[in-house]
Amino acid sequence: MSTEKNDPWLDAALKNVLAGRPIENISLTQPDLTTEAAYHLQHQLIKRLQANGGWGEIYGYKAALTAQAAQDAMGIDEPIIGALFQHGAQQANVQTAVQADRPVLLETELGFRLSKAITEPVTAGNVLNSVSECRGMIELAAPNLQQRPSSIDLISSNSASYGCLAANTSFDPTQLDLDTLAVSLTRLGSLEETLHSVRAGTVMQGQLHALAWLVNTVLAKGYSLAPGHVLMTGSIGNMHPGAPGDYRGRFGELGELAFRLN
Question: In this structure, what CATH number is given to the domain that contains residue 146?
């Protein structure tokens, strides 16, 4: 695929991302764009954001569309990935107030921090050999596209990556039964509303399978995995429109994460 052909789309996408404006759906002008070509565009957009956007270094990577229903709706047969930036990542506590300059979706997830670089494929049985800690996370996903996206639109525009919140406490994942962690998201107020409550193992075929898949896909798409990178394995439970208010995520033995969305 010619990069030059897509330079106008990339230039406009960069400007819109930085301004919080919706990005043009590339599938409207290039309906035959392949998944491989979409990931090439994702690489190019990420490079431009690193060079010109002030978004900082890569914080890690995320899996998206991990639910079968989401894949069916997009006409694909596996999840997709995107890169997370330092500028959108923050530690959360009860005083954390999140300012979003675009509409966001709230997702409860688990995040795994790498203790060393990974350069070769892993399995669910050995992936934790490269992980130092696990935390509860809230992803602030923002598709930020002008029209309803296809999987090609999502991949090209970095898979709805925008921001994430990490709980203050971390744990050694080898000491936990990750799939049995009870994960919930509650909107607080005069009447608390539980938005969802599910087990962490509902992601793909379980957390370790999801983590190994994410590692191997990140490598296969030409990205590098360095010590300190955080890997988010996908939404546990449904995603929810980020209406202003106070929220609390619970992650079983991993503790809680409270925040206010302004």
Answer: 3.90.850.10
